[in-house]
Amino acid sequence: MLSARSASRGTRWPHSPRVPLSRSPAGFTGWAHLTEVDPDEEVQGEIHLRLEVLPGARGCRLRCSVLEARDLAPKDRNGASDPFVRVRYNGQTRESSVVKKSCYPRWNETFEFELEEGSTEVLCVEAWDWDLVSRNDFLGKVVVNVQRVRAAEQEEGWFRLQPDQSKNQRAEGNLGSLQLEVRLRDETVLPSSCYQPLVQLLCREVKLGTQGPGQLIPVIEETTSTECRQEVATNLLKLFLGQGLAKEFLDLLFQLELGRTSEANTLFRSNSLASKSMESFLKVAGMRYLHGVLGPIIDRVFEEKKYVELDPSKVEVKDVGCSRLHRPQSEAEVLEQSAQTLRAHLGALLSALCRSVRACPAVLRATFRQLFQRVRERFPGTQHENVPFIAVTSFLCLRFFSPAIMSPKLFHLRDRHADARTSRTLLLLAKAVQNVGNMDTPVARAKEAWMEPLQPTVRQGVAQLKDFITKLVDIGEKEELDLQRTLSLQAPLVKEGPLFIHRTKGKGPLASFSFKKLHFSLTTEALSFAKTPSSKKSIFIKLANVCAAEKVEEKSFGSSHVMQVIYTDDVGQLQTAYLQCKCVNELNQWLSALRKVSINNTGLLGSYHPGVFRGDKWSCCHQKDRTDRGCDKTRSRVTLQEWNDPLDHDLEAQLIYRHLLSVEAMLWEKHRELSRTSETGTVPAGPGKGRFLPAGTLLGGWGAVGTLPAALTAPLPPAPEDPLVALLGVLQDLRVSHSFS
Question: Which Pfam family, just one, is annotated for this protein (predicted)?
């Protein structure tokens, strides 16, 4: 359940968010009224029931076996509940025993009721949290149609607990509203062989570049709306990055953009596919580089918390001095001190950037070199001598460093958003970086004249930046190959950061103070740790041995930010490592990253214990057998989708296919338009005509549609004269493959 809460009053998205979501399967966008929280509506978890109708001497009997429950809402201060079950039927009520301190109780109790002929009563199973002093807390209920059970004679399974909606709903709108945007996605990813025709068709065009006959990339850009262009650009970039063609893909986009740009000052200023793809590329390939250069400066700004303002219309005069010698600080003094602070930050940033040439990843340097050369070829002459530099800085400064300075939390540079004072300092620093990136043009200076105090540092920074870019793009073919070969030998980094590892001793975990802080690094091969980020790393868990990555109950260690990694050791025995994160966002990111890199492991578990084995029993379900089957189901496929996700070639191909399928009608229209301009072209019937071209015919004998998906494993034939027709055929084949899955 998705709900929006207020810590002070207790407000929520009204009623059940499943209602608006069920009406809009693709998601929900709009304003939702906040209402006061009804504790009887805030429920979670499932209950395991077995329902039977048994014949008897006096008539039929209804037997309800309450077996167990999982993931119940924690209602007590210890992070758990004391659950019991109340079963109601035809005016009769039965209650189970209370299971103390557990959100995963096991009752295994049976209740029987006499069934009346023709009765339309329902069976209601309610879960409650028992309290000695205050009233019991409602945990959820299940309502069962008895007539359905009578017809089936027996029914067993897990039932989701539902809120109590018998009360009149409260009036909406008096507590304000919250604007929400929720998107739901359910993807069916086919085997790799099914996507090979699509991947190879796109890769062929990228390899040929603008010299080949293909026009797929421009057509994809033309048929992609502005709203989803960033998502499509990210998917394409990740796909080609996985194929080792990221530089070639971006180079093709550079050429296409340069071919339709006549004015140098408008180059890469629009939200084109080239601009969006380069943004994604910098985030995927350059995030560690960004952290190394920008991290210390951002930390200094947050720690100093100085008041900084350059705009005279926004200056706040403060009292300065000590003891009883306070005097008002003049506006000129505030502006001068602010300029000094910003000059120091900007100078430190530019110095760090100039020293970072060799720290910049090889694939970034090679891409920037290609961009620099293409722009210089397109705009030669002394009047355009700054244009190649501005092309590089338009991405490096304007679309990478400046956004990270303004919103460091979004780039994982800080754990929390900045306060108002720090945000203003960051904004002014970002503006200064933009002026340097624009090569200190007169237009930029005239826009905000009050930035003039920074001009000496900006002019010096322009010279430093040009020298840096000259060195950055000065990379030979041999050096590029050597650097890429070195990188290919290293497992790509997925996530890193500090975690607290919990040491175990004797029969069970120690108290929470036994957590030890270490720096962890997650790659596609292993989870490693070290004392500091720069010290030598030791392998902690090999990724091939991971069986599950799940949350731990709050009551286990007194913290809600603990996760467990279940893995097999060298002798094949299951072991569990408990790692504590600093916040819930970090917890979700680590769980997501661990699940993604181990999602194809053969030994993944279907269930686990969300508690710990302390003393002689599990804290979650109170079972006394340490090897007992887990009381909750694992969530190996519940992950986040972020720009820094590990590469999943099949998923990216599926997302591209889904997008192309959504614009298929436009692709057909584009093909008919191109066909009308060709002397020999024929116009095939599109999806609107009710029939499709045979894929085997389009792609040179891949096989009949009826033999899919095996036909898709055949080698790709030579490219047809019309790649767009081939693309439409591939979409048709994938549609058939999905119908088989």
Answer: C2
- 480 — phi, psi (to 5°)? -65, -45
Closest CA to 309 of 272, 276, 334, 346: 334
Q: How far apart are CA 229 and CA 44, in angstroms?
A: 37
Cα gap 87→103, rounded to integer Å: 19
Report the predicted TM-score, pTM, of the whole model to 2 decimal places: 0.74
Query: Could you give phi then psi for residue 505, rounded to 5 degrees?
Result: -150, 135
Q: Give the mean pLDDT of 86-113.
A: 92
User: Which of 109-118, 434-443, 445-454, 455-464 tops mean pLDDT?
Assistant: 455-464
Dihedral angle, C-alpha 353, 358, 359, 365, nearest 10 °: 90
- Burial class for 127, CB neighbours closer than 10 Å (0-12, 13-18, 19+): buried
The dihedral of CA 159, 161, 166, 172: what is its sign? negative
Instruction: Determine how many CB atoms are found less than 10 A away from the CB of residue 491.
Output: 15
More confident residue, 482 or 728: 728
Instruction: For residue 278, give both structure tokens.
Output: 């380069």
| Contact call for residues 128 and 116 (beta carbons, < 8 A) | no
Spatial distance between the Cα atoms of 640 and 586, rounded to a whole number of angstroms: 12
As a whole number of angstroms, the distance between CA 242 and CA 85 comes to: 52
The rounded distance, in Å, linking the Cα atoms of 550 and 563 is 6
The answer to whether residues 279 and 395 touch, using CB atoms and an 8 Å cutoff, is yes
Q: What is the pLDDT of residue 285?
A: 87
- How far is it, in rounded angstroms, from Cα 599 to Cα 319? 59
What number of helices (H) and strands (E) belong to the chain? Answer: 21, 27
Whole-number average pLDDT of the chain: 81
User: Is 51 in a helix, a strand, or coil?
Assistant: strand
Type of residue at 424: R
Taking residues 228-245, report their average pLDDT.
Answer: 90
In the numeric block, the tokens 């190879």 are attached to 200
pLDDT band at 21, cuts 50/70/90?
low
Query: What is the sign, positive or negative, of the torsion defined by CA atoms of 487, 489, 493, 496?
Result: negative
Nearest alpha carbon to residue 597 among 608, 589, 586, 607: 589
Question: What's the mean pLDDT in 305-318?
Answer: 85
669 sits in which H/E element: helix 664-676
Three-state secondary structure call for residue 426: helix
Cβ neighbours for 338, distance < 8 A, ≥ 6 positions apart: 307, 308, 309, 310, 428
Q: What residues does 51 pair with on adjacent strands?
A: 64, 155
Nearest to 14 by CA among 170, 167, 164, 141: 170
pLDDT for residue 683: 42
pLDDT for res 169: 52
Confidence at residue 56, expressed as pLDDT on a 0 to 100 scale: 72
What number of other Cβ atoms are within 10 A of residue 226's Cβ?
A: 9
pLDDT in tens, 372-395: 999 999 999 888 899 999 999 999
Confidence of residue 506 (pLDDT cuts 50, 70, 90): very low
Q: What is residue 46's predicted lDDT score, i.e. its pLDDT? A: 94
pLDDT at res. 684: 44
Model pLDDT, residue 11: 45
Q: What are the residues whose beta carbons fall under 8 Å from the beta carbon of 629, sequence distance 6 or more?
A: 607
- Residue 55's beta-bridge partner residues? none
Measured CA distances, 208 to 372, 469, 660, 727 (Å)? 20, 28, 21, 16
Residue 215 token pair:
């026009």
Which domains are seen in the chain, by residue range?
46-166 (2.60.40.150), 224-320+328-475 (1.10.506.10), 493-633 (2.30.29.30), 648-740 (no CATH)
Given CA atoms 681, 685, 686, 692 in this order, what sign does their dihedral have?
negative
